[in-house]
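pinging the channel bc i need a second pair of eyes. not urgent but kinda urgent?? the chain im working w is below, pasted from the shared doc
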Amino acid sequence: MGARESIRTAVRHVVPPAGLTRALAVQAMVFAVGHGVFLAGSTVFFTRALGLSPAQVGLGLSLAAGASLLGTVPLGGLTDRYGPQRVWVVCLLLDAGLFAAYPFAGGFAGFLAVVMALAVTGAATGVARQVYSINVLRPEERVTAMAYQRSSKNVGFGMGALISGLVLAVDTIWAYRGMVWFIAVVLLVTAVFVRRLPRLPEVTRPTEPTSRLAVLRDRPFMTVALLSGLLSAHQTLYVTVLPLWILTCTDAPKTIIAALVLLNTVLIVLFQVRASRGADTAPGAARASRRGAVLIAAFCVLLPVSGATRGALTVVALVAAATVLIMAEMVESAGTWGLTATLPPAAHRGAYVGAFGLGSQVQLLIAPAGLTALGVSTGGWGWYPAAAIFTLVGLVIVPAVARVERTPRLPGVAASTGSVTLVP
């Protein structure tokens, strides 16, 4: 009986409960299938099917990241104006059209036009999805629902990676074209799915219009956004810096990198929901962010051990450090969801959620080079200053969130009450 109850408990933390939480999780998984296909196969598609050089691909992706950075806050304002569900559906349809057009992109100019347009619509989609999830769910359900979505996304990413592997095995131009057309179909299916989700209640608008960029003048909120964004460096550490450390500073076999990616996927699917407990209020989310910061710092202290060991001990040290970083990722992600769900005012939630994302985008600009130079290029001693930095961020973020709660946001932000109604 005890074993059965343990199995049921485990299933409850992986399979979302019936209703809106499950619908959002299924949507996330379907979307992630297409995203996973492209993440695994995009570089080969760009070079083989479009005939681009690696330098052209890198330049195009960098310019696209810049377009996404500049457009996040204004696009969030569009979500406030037209509603997150409408913006979400429209952007998914635009994404589908852009992916369908990818094989016909002529040279670098065509590639640049498509990749920059996808960056802009992708930024709008991300904001609209988050705002919809926050608005449609009760406060006590939001963080848990986002945790289920993230768990489901990892399942979808895995499925997408398998499909991409088949495409790479076939390795023909038509296989790569079929890959992006498949992604376009997945996006269309996702758009239909989102269109059929419950409609949102109306949000009361302020009597006086407010600039979409006004959120950038909200210093307490932007401080929290920057601090939380710096903590999202766990993504860069796991995806970029850890593999570089393994290759250049340890005697571990290269295959350990793939094994650690699999470990990340499995642990997030199994434990993300449990790790999100208590982050559904602003103080709880701040404490979760602090715990995430401490765990990142612990990773920075543990990882250098793998540079001083040999053989099986190196593998053990790497797995231990990676597990701590995965724990940090799960807890810090829950903190981020809690902060985005509780701190933004209802009537300006799109602009605020978009602005909150600027912190993680800044991290993406500085962390890959900065953490690689600090941790890898120094041979190991630089991990200790990195640990001190993350510890400091963890100490500061709780009082920073408390300051936001004490500071009035933009005027006229009360949300109306009312039940959601299913789209016919």
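so The CA atoms of residues 196 and 240 lie 38 Å apart. and The chain has two domains: 12-195, 214-406. — does that match what u expected or am i reading it wrong
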